[in-house]
Amino acid sequence: MASNPERRAALVDAGVEVLAREGARGLTFRAVDGEAGVPVGTASNYFGGRDDLLRQIDARLHQRLAPDPKVLAELMKASKDRALVTAFMHDLMARAQRDRTGYLALLEMRLEATRRPELRASYTKTIRADLEYGMEFHRGAGLPGGDETVTVLYLAMLGLILEHLTLPGVLEGVLPGVTVPDGLVERIVATIVPERGDQGPSDG
After folding, report:
1. Are 11 and 46 in contact (CB under 8 A)?
2. Residue 123's Cα: distance from chain center in Å?
3. For burial by CB atoms within 10 Å, which of 39, 43, 91, 131 has the most?
4. Cβ-count burial of 81 within 10 angstroms (0-12 exposed, 13-18 middle, 19+ buried)?
5. How far apart are CA 8 and CA 26, in angstroms?
6. For residues 22 and 104, what is the distance between their CA atoms, to the nearest angstrom?
7. Whole-model pTM?
8. With 0-12 CB in 10 A as exposed, 13-18 as middle and 19+ as buried, what is 40?
9. Residue 118 has what pLDDT?
10. Long-range contact list for 177-184, CB < 8 A, 24+ apart?
11. 65 in Cβ contact with 96 (< 8 Å)
C-alpha cells in the first residue's frame, strides 16, 4: 500500500468533498481520484477498501472540526460561568459554518452508519467518546451544570447545527427578534445552563 502521507491526506480530504456532495453511495475510489485530480487507481493504492477510507475520513473530520487550541486557551481565561459556555457554543457553531463541507460529510457518516453495522459500532464509539470528553472538560473546567447539562446542550446544539446547515429557512423568523444562528445559540445556553456553579439534581 502506498505511503506518501501528503498524497494520502489529499485523498482523504477529497473523500470528504465527495461524501458531502454525493453522499455515501457516491463515495467511490474513482470519484475520490477525480476530486483529487490524480490518475484513476491512485486511491485504491492508499486504502485497503471503502471501510478503510471511511475510517480515515472519520479521523480527518474530527481533526478539521476540532477547536483551535489557541482559541480554547484564550477563552479559558474568562470567568467560568454561563457566558463562557455561550462563547464555547458560538465557537462550535462558527467552526461548523466555516467547514460546512466537513460537517455535512459528518452527517453523511451518521447516515451510512445506520446501514453498516461495523461502521455503526466504530462510529458510535467515536461519537460517545466525544460526548464523554465534553462532560469531563466541563467538569474539569468548573463550568456551571454537570453531565445532564452537557448532554442536553449537546443535543440542542446538534439539532441547531443540523437545521442551520441543511434547511436554514426552517429557523428564520421562528422566534421574532432572535437571530439565526447566534441568537438561537444564546437562547439555548440560557435555557439549559445554570448561571453559575449550581448543578441540577441529576448532574455530575
Report:
1. yes
2. 12
3. 43
4. middle
5. 19
6. 11
7. 0.92
8. exposed
9. 87
10. 181/93, 181/97, 182/90, 182/93, 184/160
11. yes
**Tens-place pLDDT, residues 136-187:** 999 999 999 999 999 999 999 999 999 999 999 999 999 999 999 999 999 9
Contact 108, 162 (CB under 8 A): no
Among residues 67, 88, 64, the alpha carbon closest in space to that of 145 is found at 88
Q: Which three cell numbers, joined as nine digits, stand for 4?
A: 506518501
Name the nearest CA neighbour of 197 among 134, 155, 141: 141
Are 80 and 144 in contact, with CB atoms under 8 Å apart?
yes
47 CB burial (10 A radius; 0-12, 13-18, 19+): buried
Alpha helices by DSSP H, 23-146:
29-36, 50-64, 69-75, 82-98, 100-113, 117-141
pLDDT in tens, 75-116: 999 999 999 999 999 999 999 999 999 999 999 999 999 999
8 A C-beta contact, residue 18 and residue 27? yes
The Cα 128–Cα 146 span in angstroms is 17
